[in-house]
Design brief:
alpha+beta; 246 residues; disordered C terminus; four-stranded antiparallel beta sheet; 6 helices; single chain
Length: 246
């Protein structure tokens, strides 16, 4: 019995020794950090970050060597300000990337001035055709108006003018006013589109000359809400359809 007891004790000691060696060699045993911070004038140490530390904390490795400085905890207001600054930085970075992408796409779309000039001509083509049609329509309406007014001279007393003639005169005046307004809107569109193409061309010339994509800022539009050059605006397209219907 004495031999068996001694043998069992020996095995237990060996097992305990192995366990201690494993524990000592375990990475977890050596990964414990020591945090220190001055709290109310006293140096406080802990194996985890010190929650009531208002200043920076020093983190040491388990062997006492320096590991890092833990910055002070931020107040809710400071955290909000930090988040806002980070958001602004991200917005600015996204803006720069967008500007680079826009300039690169612009140069792909218009590799030279001839391509850009053709795009301008295409954008203005339907509008200019519509203006010519409206002007022709105005000329015809003026001829019709003269005939109606010549006929109306036979009725010095407007009260005795035939209802059909009065209606024709009113319709003629309304049609003339509509066509003149349409031409004015179309010419405004033409001026705006030309101004946008001019601004874009000035931007492109700098890019063609070697300016870095994204370094010039956005293309300055001719007016608020002005479309990007490359095609007539919705107003222009609507004007073309209206002209065709008269």
């Amino acid at each position: 019995m004495g031999f068996e007891a001694a043998s069992g004790l020996s095995m237990s000691i060996r097992s305990l020794t192995v366990a201690m060696v494993v524990l000592v060699l375990s990475p977890a045993a050596w990964s414990v950090s020591i945090f220190s911070c001055a709290v109310d004038g006293k140096l406080v140490r802990s194996d985890r970050e010190i929650p009531n530390c208002t200043g920076q904390q020093t983190e040491l490795n388990s062997d006492g060597s320096f590991k890092r400085i833990v910055p002070p905890r931020l107040s809710p207001e400071e955290r909000a300000n930090q988040d806002e600054r980070a958001r602004q930085v991200e917005v600015e970075r996204a803006g720069v990337n967008d500007a680079i992408r826009r300039d690169r796409n612009l140069m792909l779309r218009y590799p030279n001035e001839a391509k850009h000039a053709k795009a301008r001509a295409d954008a203005l083509g339907d509008l200019r055709t519509s203006v010519r049609r409206s002007e022709t329509r105005i000329e015809l309406l003026l001829i019709e108006q003269k005939k109606l007014r010549d006929e109306a001279e036979f009725y010095p007393d407007k009260q005795k003018m035939p209802l059909k003639l009065k209606q024709d005169l009113d319709a003629n005046e309304a049609a003339l006013a509509a066509q003149r307004s349409l031409v004015q809107n179309q010419n405004t569109d033409i001026s705006r589109i030309n101004a946008n193409f001019d601004a874009e061309l000035a931007h492109l010339r700098k890019l063609w000359g070697g300016a870095a994509a994204g370094s010039l800022g956005p293309v300055k539009a001719a007016a608020s809400g002005a479309e990007t050059p490359g095609g007539p605006s919705r107003t222009s397209a609507s004007a073309v359809k209206t002209t065709a219907s008269h």
